[in-house]
Structure formats: structure tokens, C-alpha cells
Amino acid sequence: MTATLDRTVQAPARPAAQLTGVSKVFGSGVGAVTALNGVDLRVEPGEFVCLLGASGCGKTTLLSMLAGLDEPTRGTVEVATDRPAVMFQEPALLPWLTATRNVELPLRLAGVGRSARRGTAGELLELVRLEGQAGKRPHELSGGMRQRVALARALAATTVDAERGSRLMLMDEPFAALDAITRDVLQGELTRVWQATGTAVVFVTHDVREAVRLGQRVVLLSSRPGTVVGEWDLTSGDREVLTEEITDRLREVISTHGRAA
Hints:
3-stranded antiparallel sheet, 37% helix, ATP-binding, ABC_transporter-like_ATP-bd, transport, ABC_transporter-like_CS
């Protein structure tokens, strides 16, 4: 039996996430640092968008604003859910809780009853192929398994607003710390889970091949201050050719920044 989340919800009238003219400045005066400048980005319901750029270009800052953890200096940030889920490089699981209890946590915080949240956690652990590991604690799981638990927990957070058709998951290089084989497996698993749930995803990475493999659309940010300098629709066309094109553009952005410095 393969678990899937119910996707029979009305499509929301607005995008899953939208940034309009967003700029972010840290500090003030001569020490001020502009991280983002004039960013426009729209993510449709159920869309998988990969946000690509060199280190320090503002990708994580942008994700933090979508998550509601920070506010723009200028511009507007809108999301179609009260609870966007966030997944980081580290699983950040509570070590004293089992896999099931970790997945249940966002549901418990949202006031979901014990029976309902236990059922949802079981379904999600099955979805990420960890149904046999439900009673284990994080130290008893491999790194890849811990990230699967973190993925199931993030999906649990999105189910709270599922009746409004507004699932949104924000992923900040969640596979960067894993070995190549585990990363490859989890990239495939993420694609399968995304197709099963219809969750809108904004996935931050600096790896062009990862972005092209996972995304429906790749958005490239310039070096600091980050602004959108390129977008590619991956739903049609040769992905190998697109990989080369995006890589060349990223190299150009990085080298231009180096000359400017």
C-alpha cells in the first residue's frame, strides 16, 4: 500500500508565494549590507521552483522572509498559508522523540487531536518509506533516514492548511550534507513525494544539476545584492542542454561579481 495525501482541494485564487520588489538591507549607515535588491518571484500552487545562486547571494535570506522569520526592508512578501514548512541542511529532530513523535510535533502544536495526528504521522512515514522505523529515535537512524523523517515532519506542517489548498514547503539545501549516493536517492524520493502531495516547493541550492533534476523552474540570483537575473522553464526542452546553459550563466554571474570587486 502506498500512502498519498488527499489532493482533492480547490485551487487557491492566489499564488502559493509571491515577492514583489523585495529588498533586504542588514544594518545601517556605512556598515549596511544589501542582501537582496528588487526581487520579483511568483510561485504557483503545486509548483517546484529551484532557487539557484552562488554562496552569499541572498537565497537563504529570501527563504527566511517567505517563512515569516524575517521581513523585507522594501517590497512585499505574500504566502497563501499560515504555516509554510521549512526544511534545513540538518534534520533538527528532537533526539528524545521517536520518528513518529517528531513527525507529529507540528500537528500537536497546531492543536490536532492525538488520534488524528498519529494517523497522519503514520501515513507520512509510509510516504517517505520509513513505516518500519516509526518507533526509533534519531540516533538509531542513518543520516538519510533522519532527513526522511524531517521531510515527513515538514509535510505534516503543510497538512494543517491543506483544506485551503495552500501547501508550501521551503527547503534550504536539505541534501548538501549527505554523501553523493544518499543525496541521489533522496532527490528521487523528494520528486516522488512532491508528485504525490501537490505541495508547492521553493528549493534553495547552489548545485545546477540538482536544480535541473528537481525543479519545474529554475530561478537564478545574481551575486550580492541578489536579484533575479535568469529563469528557465524545465517542463519542456532537453535538460542536459539546459544544465549547460544555466551553468554558463551562473559562471558569468560569478565572474562578473569578481571583476566588480
